[in-house]
């Protein structure tokens, strides 16, 4: 058992390492779509930087014109472009600080994504757990979907019912193929034996026998037995007489033994014949009384019930009985597999009809829809509340396994283009703000 104990953790660790390697490889490989995004980011960076250079050139020209006495307009342009440069530089610093240290300087609170990657993963996992995996959110969302009515309408179509039936048949065949016969036979045999051993069968047998006798059901069995006994005696009369003669004492004459054998055979044949032909034969009545008394003893007599229990234990303990119980699974499995493979089998036809009936009822019955909705809600809530930590840890562990540099590049490829608009907007808004401030100061100064 020791190797099995060690194999579990080692297999789990190997699987976890394989999943982490796949995750890291996904973050270090840039797909064609990622490369196209990176080219888009570079184009937007050039645009934002070009706008910064443009306002810088305009600022220089405006200051030069102001010093040359070009007029008041030069001061307004210089103020606007100066503020635009400040806004552009500030936003460049802010955007760059998300992904790396600006100008390579280790300024505090910069390169946020690569340095805070793990904390971001933890925060993201907590955010998902609190806002997406809460019981109220799950119930509200599933209730809005109306799974019961949609599923009913979908199942009501024959082609959908056929598809579900085929999928169920495939799944059933697969499950029965995977299961080992020896394991199932052991489980079935143990379950039947345990259940039969735990439940006393005497009273039940007594009630059943009492009803059979009361209804006269046993008489057909008696008729069959005495008829077969009569036919056997007719065919094997010599064997019966030889058996009687063989049991006689050695000192008796042979003709006496033969006469006794013939007499015994004739009386036995007469008794069986009369019992066969006379429904009111005394032996039949005696048998009825015996069965009635035995049925009563099975229900009330402790000694009889104890003897039946001992006999039951002996029968269940025999190897032949255990083999019979175990072989029942093989027969049942073969029958189910054959029925699942046959499209026209009674099993598949009944499953298809049941699915159609269920779909039609669910499509129009609010109670059936409510039951399905509540079941789905309960199952989903159980999963998210029970395994919320495992689900969120998948996020945090996956993010923690990513390489910081490649993660930064990939995130920048996805959102960097939009972030460059912040630089452009900063330049434009800064210019407008600078122009407004300069204008207000000139008006108030006048």
Automatic annotation (TrEMBL):
The chain crosses the membrane at residues 46-62, 74-99. InterPro entries: DUF445. The keyword Cytoplasm does not apply. The keyword tRNA processing does not apply. It comes from the Bacteria. Keywords: Membrane, Transmembrane, Transmembrane helix. One of its GO terms (cellular component) is plasma membrane. This is Membrane protein. It comes from Streptomyces spiralis. The lineage of its organism: Bacteria, Bacillati, Actinomycetota, Actinomycetes, Kitasatosporales.
């Amino acid at each position: 058992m020791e190797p099995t104990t060690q194999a579990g953790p080692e297999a789990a660790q190997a699987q976890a390492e394989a999943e982490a390697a796949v995750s890291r490889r996904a973050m270090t490989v840039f797909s064609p779509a990622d490369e196209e995004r990176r080219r888009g980011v570079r184009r937007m960076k050039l645009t934002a930087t070009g706008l910064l250079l443009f306002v810088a050139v305009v600022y220089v020209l405006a200051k030069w014109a102001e010093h040359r006495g070009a007029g008041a307009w030069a001061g307004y342009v210089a103020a606007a472009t100066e503020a635009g440069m400040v806004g552009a530089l500030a936003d460049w610093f802010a955007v760059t600080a998300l992904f790396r240290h600006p100008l390579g300087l280790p300024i505090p609170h910069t390169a946020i994504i690569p340095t805070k990657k793990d904390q971001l993963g933890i925060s993201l996992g907590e955010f998902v757990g609190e806002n997406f995996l809460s019981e109220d959110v799950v119930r509200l969302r599933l209730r809005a979907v109306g799974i019961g009515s949609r599923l009913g309408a979908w199942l009501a179509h024959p082609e959908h019912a056929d598809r579900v039936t085929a999928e169920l048949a495939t799944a059933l065949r697969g499950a029965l193929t995977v299961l080992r016969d020896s394991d199932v036979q052991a489980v079935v045999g143990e379950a039947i034996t345990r259940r039969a051993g735990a439940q006393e069968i005497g009273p039940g047998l007594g009630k059943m026998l009492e009803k059979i006798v009361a209804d006269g059901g046993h008489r057909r069995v008696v008729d069959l037995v005495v008829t077969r006994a009569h036919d056997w005696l007719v065919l094997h009369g010599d064997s019966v007489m030889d058996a009687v003669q063989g049991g006689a004492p050695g000192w008796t004459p042979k003709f006496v033994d033969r006469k006794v054998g013939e007499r015994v055979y004739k009386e036995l044949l007469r008794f069986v014949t009369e019992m066969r032909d006379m429904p009111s034969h005394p032996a039949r009545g005696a048998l009825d009384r015996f069965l009635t008394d035995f049925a009563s003893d099975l229900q009330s007599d402790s000694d009889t019930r104890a003897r039946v229990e001992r006999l039951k234990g002996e029968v269940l303990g025999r190897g032949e009985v255990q083999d019979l119980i175990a072989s029942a699974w093989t027969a049942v499995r073969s029958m189910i597999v054959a029925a699942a493979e046959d499209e026209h089998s009674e099993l598949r036809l009944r499953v298809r009809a049941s699915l159609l009936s269920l779909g039609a009822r669910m499509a129009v019955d609010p109670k059936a829809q409510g039951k399905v909705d509540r079941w789905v809600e309960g199952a989903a809530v159980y999963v998210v509340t029970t395994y919320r930590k495992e689900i969120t840890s998948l996020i945090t562990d996956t993010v923690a396994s990513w390489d910081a540099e490649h993660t930064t590049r990939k995130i920048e490829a996805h959102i960097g283009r939009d972030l460059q608009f912040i630089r452009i907007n900063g330049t434009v808004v800064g210019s407008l703000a600078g122009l407004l401030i300069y204008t207000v100061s000139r008006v108030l100064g006048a």
